[in-house]
């Protein structure tokens, strides 16, 4: 029987539009910044698994 | 030789920020920083005394560290000097997978990170106000967290090591948990998953973080912000594919604000005092039919905005005030 490795218990991720947000130097925020329900999960601040769910660690360094 | 009048005009036209300046250290794509800055503008009228340093755009700034201190200038000419900084907010400057980091050699990447830690270390020594301690992520690791937390909360039995077969779990259902806090390979992240196999089938050449599965039906997360608690709960019955809510398609709206019992509030205060943290997001589990909390971990720089995106619970205002506002440590 093949041994299980930590990779068997990890989640696959894909990179999603992390750097597509144009930064507004004058206002010090994203140019398209607006508050809505998807602000955090779709603003490019996080990475996502294959289902499109955020997978970045809370402690990323 | 510059005429005194010319020099005076130059000084007046320079964009040195007001004496009480606030530094937010983050990345250009951090929407939580956008949110906090927006809230700051709403609360204080403008953001002219805040300098946002986007670490991913390092080369867009002029960074200078000398025996006299440091200064950073952004492309608009806005300039912040260390001697003028009253508070700083460490807001996830090292976002992963930023394309600007691609191609950057490891030496430069490491150099910049170490320099940034040097800068915040200097600010801490100057008694600058801060909410999030950048060094706590490295200092307060999982084992220490669980060791201290066990004085206040129950913790499912756990094991870390490379010989799990030699450890006696009292339960049959075991989960593998993430221990390292970043990617383990190009496309893989650690997450919490049920083993669904005997511990004896685990590779003995790898190191494991295993824990007895907690059957509680609610996830609880508590955002602690300088003596204020913001608690939210998530009903796990909607989970279909596993034990980790982060890897399922879960709407942030399913996290509901809750009131903790007085006993649990006191425990959280005492534990955070023992952790020596002013900010942290504590993760627990509990059964819906009782108040007992099972401690999982504290994230010393945990995400929070998705819990209260419209500031209905006052969490965004509290963070903004305590990280960049007039409330000094």
Instruction: State the major sheet of chain A.
Output: 2 strands, antiparallel
Give the ordered list of helices and strands of chain A: EEEE
Helix content of chain B: 10-25%
Instruction: Work out the radius of gyration of chain A.
Output: 16 Å
Low-confidence stretches of chain B are none
The protein's oligomeric status is: heterodimer
- State mean pLDDT of chain B (0 to 100 scale): 85
Tell me the β content of chain A. 15-25%
CATH architecture of the largest domain in chain B: 3-Layer(aba) Sandwich
Report on this model:
The complex is a heterodimer of chains A (61) and B (329). Chain A is mainly β and 61 residues long. In chain A, 0% of the residues lie in helices and 18% in strands. Chain A has strands at 10-14, 23-24, 29-30, 48-49. Chain A has a two-stranded antiparallel ribbon with strand order 1-4. A two-stranded antiparallel sheet of chain A has the order 2-3. The longest helix of chain B is centred in the middle third of the chain and has 20 residues, at 106-125. In chain B, 24% of the residues lie in helices and 26% in strands. Chain B has three domains: 4-134, Rossmann fold (3-Layer(aba) Sandwich); 137-154 and 216-300, ATP-grasp fold, B domain (D-amino Acid Aminotransferase, Chain A, domain 1), CATH 3.30.470.20; 158-212, no CATH class. The mean pLDDT of chain B is 85. In chain B, strands 16-15-14-17-18 form a five-stranded antiparallel beta sheet. Chain B has a four-stranded mixed beta sheet with strand order 1-6-5-4. A four-stranded parallel beta sheet of chain B has the order 3-2-7-8, sandwiched between helices. Chain B contains seven helices and 18 strands. Chains A and B meet through strand 1 and strand 3 of A and helix 2, strand 3 and strand 11 of B. Strand 1 of chain A pairs antiparallel with strand 11 of chain B.
């Amino acid at each position: 029987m093949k041994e299980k490795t930590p990779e068997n218990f990890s989640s696959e991720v894909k990179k999603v539009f992390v750097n597509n947000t144009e930064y507004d130097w004058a206002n010090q925020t994203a140019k398209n910044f607006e508050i809505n329900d998807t602000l955090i999960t779709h603003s490019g601040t996080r990475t996502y698994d294959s289902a499109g769910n955020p997978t970045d660690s809370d402690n990323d360094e | 030789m510059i005429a005194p009048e010319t020099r005076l005009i130059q000084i007046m036209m320079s964009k040195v920020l007001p004496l009480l300046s606030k530094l937010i250290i983050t990345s250009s794509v951090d929407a939580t920083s956008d949110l906090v800055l927006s809230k700051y503008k709403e609360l204080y009228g403008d953001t002219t005394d805040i300098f946002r340093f986007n670490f991913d755009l390092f080369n867009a700034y002029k960074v200078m560290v000398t025996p006299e201190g440091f200064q950073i200038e952004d492309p608009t000419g806005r300039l912040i000097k260390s001697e003028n900084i009253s508070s700083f907010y460490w807001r996830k400057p090292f976002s992963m997978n930023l394309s600007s980091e691609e191609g950057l050699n490891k030496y430069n990447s490491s150099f910049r990170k170490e320099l940034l830690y040097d800068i915040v270390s200097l600010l801490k020594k100057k008694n600058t106000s801060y909410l999030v301690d950048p060094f706590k992520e490295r200092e307060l690791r999982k084992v220490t967290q669980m060791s201290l937390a066990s004085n206040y909360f129950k913790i499912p039995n756990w094991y870390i090591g490379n010989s799990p077969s030699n450890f006696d779990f009292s339960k049959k259902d075991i989960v593998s948990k993430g221990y390292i806090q970043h990617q383990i390979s190009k496309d893989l992240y650690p997450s919490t998953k049920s083993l669904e196999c005997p511990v004896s089938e685990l590779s003995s050449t790898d190191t494991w973080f295993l824990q007895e599965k907690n059957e509680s039906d609610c996830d609880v997360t508590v955002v602690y912000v300088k003596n204020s608690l913001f608690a939210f709960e998530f009903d796990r019955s909607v989970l279909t594919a596993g034990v980790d809510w982060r890897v399922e398609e879960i709407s942030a709206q399913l996290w509901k604000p809750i009131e903790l019992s007085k006993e649990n509030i006191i425990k959280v205060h005492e534990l955070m005092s023992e952790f020596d943290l002013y900010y942290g997001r504590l993760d627990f589990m509990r059964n819906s039919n009782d108040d007992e909390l099972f401690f999982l971990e504290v994230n010393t720089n945990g995400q929070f905005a998705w819990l209260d995106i419209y500031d209905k619970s006052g969490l965004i205002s509290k963070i903004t005030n305590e990280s960049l506002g007039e409330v000094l440590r």
